[in-house]
Amino acid sequence: MSGQAETSIRPRAPHGADLGRLRERFALAFADGADGLVDAAEREVRGVTLDSRDVRAGDLYAALPGERRHGAEFAAQARERGAAAILTDPAGAELLREAGTGLPVLVSEDPRGILGEVSAEIYGTAGIDAAVFGVTGTNGKTSVVYLLAELLRAAGLRAGLSSTAERRVGDTAMTSGLTSPEAPELHALLARMREERAEAIALEVSAHAVVRHRIDGVRFDVVAFNNFSQDHLDDFGDMESYFQAKLALFAPEHARRGVVVVDSAHGRRVARESRIPVTTLATEYGAEADWHLAVTAQDIDGVAFALQGPGGARFRGRVPVFGRFMAENAALALIMLHEAGIGFERIAAGLEGTDRQGGLIPVYIPGRLEAINPSGSGPRFYVDYGHTPGSFAAMLDALAEVAEGRVIFMFGADGDRDTSKRAEMGRIAATGSDILIVCDYHPRSEDPAAIRAQLLAGARAAGRAELYEEGDPRAAVRLAISLARPGDVILYAGPGHEDYQEVEGRKLPYSARDEVRAALREAGLL
Ligand SMILES: CC(=O)N[C@H]1[C@@H](OP(=O)(O)OP(=O)(O)OC[C@H]2O[C@@H](n3ccc(=O)[nH]c3=O)[C@H](O)[C@@H]2O)O[C@H](CO)[C@@H](O)[C@@H]1O[C@H](C)C(=O)N[C@@H](C)C(=O)N[C@H](CCC(=O)O)C(=O)O
Ligand SMILES: Nc1ncnc2c1ncn2[C@@H]1O[C@H](COP(=O)(O)OP(=O)(O)OP(=O)(O)O)[C@@H](O)[C@H]1O
């Protein structure tokens, strides 16, 4: 790879497929001119990507039509980086014919639609010999994936994971670009996990991933749905389309069985309309469900719970992160494992620090309610990735139950993304906090002051919290600390694990966790 930084995890020993085989299996045609290439059908591709910047020698470059550009426009870069062939649609073939790449070009009417299966063929991942778990829902997918990985570790199983925060396989970890990788990246990851002898794999599945064919070619053993609330309306247009995208995961072409939290009407709908067998979880006492969860104790340091299910299945455990919803996330992960035949006794035996509340699940979820100064006498500062009205409500409700002092909440909103959720974010934030600081998040191409004004308008309508506006997040962090008293809790929602701030198309280095650490140090609180 001639000194270029790797942008995705690939298998060490590629599997490969020849173009003749791909042409036959996917009913592809060679574009005009490619038949003339001496070895077109025999040529082997060893990897696949849809991003010209990620091409490695011997790859098939999938040149797909995008919202802004056509991938065929980047064919020259793909070729320069060593692509062995191109897969595209008729429009792409036309662009390539004009430009002339000298590479064999395979044409499909719907290249995105077949890319998952094509990737599975190239990486040999169709029948991967590991239990594959998928998690969908609006909030908490990353948390459930990390809980799954931790519980699998306790059960003595080697696990790989893919989440919004990172992709992890064996000792290799890489920051994620998307919540759910595009199909070529996903299958490369699965192939690498196989090489690392992963026995189980936990994947976060976004609604985008389902409708954009990112998970095609993968058959999940167990999928789970946790909750549903407003997000991504910029992409899906309305809540029903967003819901349908998630519901589509519960189909035999994607998964064998499912676990569904039925606390909400949307959850009950998934349970009713699922096309695969599902088992259900309720957290409300007396609600109709196969599994029931009860929170047995909680404070700012974590939550203890008892889970009961069919056939006398029981589990008592603790999670070192506050909030009832974290108990729910843990319960969901436990039931998924149970459904895959991984018994509770086996998991419990691998947990340390068992007391009468059960075993401690020592999960670390990067940037999710992450306590930057977990002990000490000053105010406690948490950094979180929540960026939906639903996640704000869950966190602030949880804090109302466990915080001893005041709640100081700071957040900003994404530019160029679902603008319709902003007023509601402001309203919920101002309802659930004592002091609210509105700052900038990723303004992207929008005017940051205008985004703040929309958030503040929502906050003012709620009228509870004392309001502050400080665009610069670094200054806002310091403002929050200066306003806090011992016993108060500061919660900074939005950036979570991220290490950049996106402004006008540029990613500027910014880590909320590092910034908070530095500011706490300056204030003598760390
Ligand atoms: C709306 C959406 O999903 N957009 C995705 C889409 O972009 P696009 O169609 O606009 O692509 P484009 O920029 O027009 O480029 C066309 C093609 O040229 C390729 N290209 C482009 C530039 C280049 O130099 N070389 C190159 O090969 C691109 O890979 C693409 O295939 O295809 C790109 C390539 O795969 C994705 O990176 C991009 O995701 C963007 C970054 C994104 O932010 N997506 C979000 C909305 C998303 O998918 N989010 C979900 C949910 C998150 C959650 O719930 O938290 C997720 O799973 O992450
Ligand atoms: N079960 C839950 N219900 C509601 N909110 C939750 C739940 N679990 C976590 N959250 C809140 O949502 C935030 C985001 O959590 P997490 O990153 O796990 O969700 P996600 O679905 O993976 O989101 P994304 O795909 O955007 O990363 C958390 O930091 C927490 O504030």
Structure keywords:
12-stranded mixed sheet; 6-stranded mixed sheet; about 525 residues; disordered N terminus; 17 helices; binds ligand UAG; about 25% strand; single chain; alpha/beta; binds adenosine-5'-triphosphate; globular
Please state the overall shape, judged from the principal axes of the Cα atoms.
Answer: globular
**Cα separation of the termini:** 42 Å
What count of helical segments does DSSP give?
17
Q: Determine the oligomeric state from the structure.
A: single chain
Number of strand segments: 27
Biggest sheet record: 12 strands, mixed
The strand order across the widest sheet is: 11-10-9-12-8-13-14-15-16-17-18-19
Helix content: 25-40%
Bound molecules: ligand UAG, adenosine-5'-triphosphate
**What is the radius of gyration computed over CA atoms, rounded to a whole number of angstroms?**
24 Å
Subcellular location: Cytoplasm
Cofactor: Mg(2+)
Pfam family, one: Mur_ligase_M
Domain Mur ligase N-terminal catalytic: 45-98
